TrEMBL record:
Record region (Disordered): 73-96
Enzyme Commission numbers on file: 6.3.5.-
SUPFAM superfamilies named among the record's database cross-references: Glu-tRNAGln amidotransferase C subunit
GO biological process: glutaminyl-tRNAGln biosynthesis via transamidation; regulation of translational fidelity; translation
UniProt-listed InterPro entries: Asp/Glu-ADT_sf_sub_c, GatC
Protein name as annotated: Aspartyl/glutamyl-tRNA(Asn/Gln) amidotransferase subunit C
Subunit structure: Heterotrimer of A, B and C subunits.
Molecular function as annotated in GO: asparaginyl-tRNA synthase (glutamine-hydrolyzing) activity; ATP binding; glutaminyl-tRNA synthase (glutamine-hydrolyzing) activity; transferase activity
Keyword line: ATP-binding, Ligase, Nucleotide-binding, Protein biosynthesis, Transferase
Family: Belongs to the GatC family.
Reactions this protein catalyses: L-glutamyl-tRNA(Gln) + L-glutamine + ATP + H2O = L-glutaminyl-tRNA(Gln) + L-glutamate + ADP + phosphate + H(+); L-aspartyl-tRNA(Asn) + L-glutamine + ATP + H2O = L-asparaginyl-tRNA(Asn) + L-glutamate + ADP + phosphate + 2 H(+)
Keyword NAD: no
Length: 96
């Protein structure tokens, strides 16, 4: 089992802005040590002939091809605008 000290747990809890009791720190140290021990089991696997992957699934882009097409004119886009100026939408200012 990988030993995680109580000081390490307190340090990580402080970084995460968590307030842990002494009992929680002790419990967390044991649980984190168990997790690391379990993950270390992967070191026992023979991965010499395994090709590295970036993702376990073969992902494909499912988006449509970006092709230029006709769109509405600027005048049509602005005809229902509640407020416009110089061919652009006018919106209330949010900065002072």
């Amino acid at each position: 089992m990988a030993d995680i000290s109580k000081d390490q747990v307190k340090h990580v809890a402080n970084l995460a802005r968590l307030a842990l009791t002494d009992e929680e720190v002790e419990k967390m140290a044991k649980q984190l040590g168990d997790i690391i021990s379990y993950a270390e089991l992967l070191n026992e696997l023979d991965t010499d002939n395994v090709e590295p992957t970036t993702h376990v699934l073969d992902l494909k882009n499912v988006m449509r091809k970006d092709e230029p097409r006709e769109w509405i004119s600027k005048e049509d886009a602005l005809k229902n605008a509640p407020d416009q100026k110089d061919g652009q939408f006018r919106v209330p200012s949010i900065l002072e």
